[in-house]
Amino acid sequence: ELLQVLDPRGVNVYSTQPPSEEERMRPFLWRFWTKTPARGRIAIFDRSWYGRFLVDKMDTIAGRMPMHKAYEEVNSFERQLVDDGHVMIKFFLHISQEEQRRRFKKLEENPMTAWRVTDYDWQKHMRYDTYREVTEGMIRETNTEYAPWHVISAQDWRFATVEAFEIIIDRVSLRIQELKSTEPLPAVQLDPVPESMLATSDLSLSLSRKAYDEERKKYQDRIWELEHEIYRRRLSVVIVYEGWDAAGKGGNIKRLVRKMDPRGYEVIPVSAPNDVELAHHYLWRFWMKIPKAGHFAIFDRSWYGRVLVERVEGLATEYEWKRAYKEINEFEEQLANYGTKLFKFWIDIGQDMQLNRFEDRQETPTKQWKIMEEDWRNREKWDVYKEAVDDMLWRTNTPYAPWTIVESNCKLYARIKTLKTVTRELEKYLIEY
Questions:
Q1: Cα angle, residue 329 at apex, residues 325 and 334 outer, rounded to 5°
Q2: Which one, of 79, 1, 85, 11, lies nearest residue 45 by Cα?
């Protein structure tokens, strides 16, 4: 009935089935994040992420994670979308056990619809009171101010349809009025950063070429072995590289993957978002790239652009970049909850070393493509960027996704530090899992 009055060109309808093998190989919310609508569009989910509670909990499929954590993931998912401008409307259509039985019988009497009622449906029907109790708990835990539940009596389909229509009209109208309002957005309060993690960086650290060659071979061989074990065990790894311009991120990544099987990893260079990406929540394009179980994803720059370049260059509002710290921590925690191992490297150099490398790039024909006017302009904002980096490191340094500062005035030292960190931490990770 709802689709009859909507322009089908602006709507996507998703019928949520049990997850496919491809979906099971990624974090639970991946298959829903990838279907979130672009601005100006509507997504209708016939069943949804709430199957985790209404089906999985009852069938003991969701035992891998404490239920309160699963509720936290769903609430943060919905809050992030609403904060980004989405209107979230959730309906639970309620009928009595007697009405459900009557409808099952009617469906079974018609050969054209009998397939819609399975033995499993009847089993659930017999446990109606238990399912009702589970549903009430789910609604209680996920009924939030930003995404409230609307429980509709569906005994009479005409009544249910009219009530749903009225709620949709009211919620969308209210959102339109909010967009027209000149009231300022609520301020996001952040505690001051007590100390600079960059201050712990010792840029004098270096390594001889001989020591580098010996260490590099040892750790590259070991990473090759670990990559195959990651694949065999169906685990996943995400590695994030952030750092100053000319810090050596690209060369560092090359040495990291040199002996790895290219079928088991993807290096993802991140630049300014395109029009399609801008039409979604800023995390959407990164959810699209989350590796499936058994694989590595290596990000050359990442979602941290929201609190670095977008903050400094005014490409994100203060409200947007301040709330991003919490959103990023939630995103990374969801990856960790699934079992993904996260590495985050800040590749650090001094101002003088950056200047030397900029000048070298300008003077070397094969490197000139690496230096642009934008790099020089960003260099003039070193102090502003440093403040943003200090904020980022402190506010997103978590037990499940800690930052590693890699001193890179000596590129040889930096390459071995990342190789050694990945190797040793993956060995621990494989023991834990």
A1: 150
A2: 11
